[in-house]
Design a protein that fits this description.
about 90 residues, mainly alpha, 1 helix, rod-shaped
Length: about 90
């Protein structure tokens, strides 16, 4: 009688260990799936981010060109004043 109880106890522990391993594997699988979903979402946003970066780059470039033209005009005006000041 004692032997039956003794042998049943390790079987319960083995069953618990197997269940724990199954749960651990399930948790790992869920984590892998969740990481894939996060990766796919991030990867799907890349084209949008690239398009936004291009638009922003174009805006910055045009603003810098305008600023450069303005500075060039200011330099020309300054040089005109300087030349007139030297002549007079």
């Amino acid at each position: 009688m004692f032997q039956l109880v003794h042998t049943a106890f390790p079987l319960v522990n083995i069953w618990d260990i197997k269940q724990f391993k199954k749960m651990k594997n399930l948790t790992i699988r869920k984590e892998i799936i969740r990481n894939r979903e996060i990766y796919q979402e991030a990867a799907s946003n890349i084209p949008v981010q690239k398009a936004n970066a291009r638009k922003h780059y174009q805006k910055l470039t045009s603003a810098l060109k305008k600023r450069g033209k303005t500075l060039h005009t200011v330099r020309e005006i300054d040089s005109q004043f300087s030349e007139n000041a030297i002549r007079n």
